[in-house]
Amino acid sequence: MTDSAATTAADLEIALRPTADPLPEAERQAILADPGFGRYFTDHMVSIEWSRDRGWHDAQLVPYGPMQIDPANMAIHYGQSIFEGLKAYRQPDGSVATFRPYSNARRFRHSATRLAMPELPEELFVAAVEALVRQDAAWVPTEDEQSLYLRPFMFATENGLGVKPADEYRFLLIASPAGAYFSGGIKPVSVWLSEDYVRAAPGGTGEAKCAGNYAASLIAQAQAAEKGCDQVVWLDAHEHRWIEEMGGMNLYFVQGEGANARILTPELSGSLLAGITRDSLLQLAADLGYTVEEAKISVDDWREGNADGSLSEVFACGTAAVITPVGDVKSRHADWTVGGGEAGAVTMRLRKALLDIQTGAAPDPHNWRHPIA
Ligand SMILES: *Cc1c(COP(=O)(O)O)cnc(C)c1O
Questions:
Q1: Which residue's CA is the nearest one to ligand 1's atom 10?
Q2: What's this model's pTM, rounded to 2 decimal places?
Q3: Which atom number of ligand 1 is nearest to the Cα of residue 319?
Q4: In the chain, what percentage of residues exceed pLDDT 70?
Q5: Closest residue by Cα to residue 152 from 124, 123, 172, 178
Q6: Fewer CB near the terminus (10 Å): N or C of the chain?
């Protein structure tokens, strides 16, 4: 669906209406000392409305706060709800930069199209990110591996029980300080290969970052926990044979060691979510001189490669945790352990290389950093 009112960021200014009553400095500092993930929110949010006759309008930065929802709200009943996730990082000079926000803006448009929702212009998406991060810059933590997690989302605001694409939507952007994902060192996660449930099928919504995908995943995650595993690994919907993703993260496989390592990630099959971390690592791994390939990887490839030693490391990647090594693997048929249950050298090298770019500790040859405040 296109934005029929042809609103562009150029003719839509985000009105700044900040709170007169921000959280006192001492309370903010107490939160930033141990923010966890997604538990605390900054003083402000950005809100933009869309209606079929007016297009995008009423863009404003306002105090963070609750909203009233009508019981007949269409997003609640029929699930037109999409989101994004990106981070702002404190830089060595005290400034703040986000990472590849236009990539999130583009993916947000694609998710909207799949859910028959209006596309937010990319410039406006990024303008919202800039406005909120600038306003709430004091909420960007300063410690290693901390960041400000940004959550853009959009949902139907029309009320009614008729099934159809809604005629009204709201875009919101909220922000939440995030602590180090691994407190006390990087520890590989254990995974359960899910054969009872699938996350996504070709032609479905797996390529879109929509709320419903997560709702559908929770029972499989609960099953993984029952089996003593931290995370679920998704297989393809047809054959339950090809590796797709881990929870809400993409997967990478390392063959061989050192400079000769070969790095593989499942190809975008139509049901995988195209992670921006995944995409960045394809580039970074090549920059570091590794052979990189998008390929079909089966459960058997994984098990046999692990047994004969050709497959040395496996890790998952995504904005929230950057890179997470995978250790124990369990399924109905077999269990095995990757890399002796330790984080591998290639995994840790890639993790540092990516974090160094995000946090400004290394040069940024691909212009991924987006300085804001
Ligand atoms: C968001 C998400 C990812 C990771 O994407 P990034 O852009 O790297 O954060 C991977 N898989 C799923 C299912 C996701 O929703």
A1: 249
A2: 0.95
A3: 9
A4: 97
A5: 172
A6: N
Strand partners, 265: 294
- The CB density around residue 95, as the number of other CB atoms within 10 Å, is 14
- The two structure tokens encoding residue 275: 């992670």
Is the Cβ–Cβ distance between 61 and 172 less than 8 Å?
Answer: no
Centroid of ligand 1 to alpha carbon of 360 (angstroms): 23
Closest of 244, 237, 239 to residue 204, by C-alpha:
237
Separation of alpha carbons 324 and 317, rounded Å: 6
The pLDDT-based confidence of 2 (bands split at 50, 70, 90) is very low
Which atom from ligand 1 is nearest to the alpha carbon of 86?
A: 9
Report the candidate in 117, 115, 120 with the shortest Cα–Cα distance to residue 105: 120
Per-domain residue ranges of the chain: 15-178, 189-359
Ligand 1: centre distance to CA 303 (Å): 25
Averaged pLDDT score across all residues of the chain? 95
> 63-73 pLDDT, tens per residue?
999 999 999 99
Please give the class, per CATH, of domain 189-359.
alpha beta
* 8 — pLDDT class (breaks 50, 70, 90): low
Helices (H), 34-121: 74-78, 101-114
| Cα distance between residue 244 and residue 266, in whole Å | 6
269-296 pLDDT per residue, tens: 899 999 999 999 999 999 999 999 999 9
Owner of token pair 């997470």: 324
The conformation of residue 73, written as its DSSP 8-state character, comes to B
Beta strand ranges found along the chain (DSSP E) = 15-16, 44-51, 55-63, 81-83, 86-90, 96-99, 147-156, 168-178, 189-194, 231-235, 243-246, 249-255, 262-266, 291-295, 311-318, 322-330, 335-337, 369-371
Alpha-carbon gap, residue 51 to 53, rounded angstroms? 6
Q: Which residues of 192-231 are buried (b: 16+ CB within 10 A; e: fewer)?
A: bbbeebbbbeeebbbbbbbbbbeebbeebbeebeebebbb
* Ligand 1 pocket, residues with Cβ under 6 angstroms: 85, 209, 245, 248-250, 273, 275-278, 318-319
Q: Is 268 left (phi over 0), alpha (psi -120 to 50) or beta?
A: beta
At the top level of CATH, which class does the domain 15-178 belong to? alpha beta
pLDDT at 10: 53
The position carrying tokens 């001189």 is: 289
